[in-house]
Write a structure and sequence with these properties.
8-stranded parallel beta barrel, TIM Barrel, alpha/beta, 8 strands, globular
Length: 191
């Protein structure tokens, strides 16, 4: 297990709630929160470096959702730029090809799966078993049986995200085997 994987697992063991930052206003709120891990879902080519540095100054780990960053294409050059110049702790993406490329650059990878039905579940499990990301983010995250199934089938750590609305959702996700829960609901960062 590499150092970055240990770092994420260690931090989630201390605090399993991940601040999902989906607006610039939430950057400061996340920095002031007790969360140790951030999923950055908003940013662009001009502000990405400053945002990452702000989180790193307070010793938070930050994972950039490549698919949502503005001004950067979703290709090898953008991935290299983020890896070499921006230096997040890892990346999040829905794209198999970016997971494979990021792993070859020794970046920590989180593959996000959107599960709509049985077919997307089947394809998602096949996808992560093929690409072998370091972790999987399951969306929506309020499906305990599905979290258990993906975790067992893939043997890859699972993070729950999406539609997490209260403390009970967080507890249920963790009981079902998720190693962490990502949420943009600020009040849940303090659970």
């Amino acid at each position: 297990m590499n150092i970055l994987k240990n770092q994420l697992l260690d931090r989630l063991e201390v605090n399993p709630v991940i601040a999902a930052v989906n607006s610039m206003e939430k950057v400061t709120q996340a920095i002031e929160s007790p969360c140790e891990t951030v999923f950055l879902l908003k940013g662009n080519i001009f502000n990405l470096s400053n945002i990452i540095n702000a989180f790193k100054q307070v010793h938070m780990t930050v994972y950039v959702h490549l698919d949502l960053m503005e001004g950067l294409s979703k290709d090898l050059t953008a991935l290299r730029y983020i890896s070499e110049k921006i230096k997040p702790d890892g990346i999040i993406t829905t794209k198999n090809s970016l997971v494979k490329k990021a792993k070859s650059m020794h970046l920590y990878t989180i593959q996000r799966l959107f599960l709509l039905d049985s077919l997307s579940l089947e394809k998602g499990i096949h996808s992560v078993c093929e690409t072998k990301p370091d972790a999987i983010e399951v969306m929506p995250g309020i499906m305990p049986k599905i979290i258990e199934k993906i975790s067992a089938a893939s043997q890859i750590p699972v993070i729950s995200g999406g539609l997490i609305s209260d403390k009970e959702d967080v507890i249920q996700c963790l009981k079902s085997g998720a190693m962490g829960v990502s949420t943009s609901k600020r009040e849940l960062w303090y659970v």
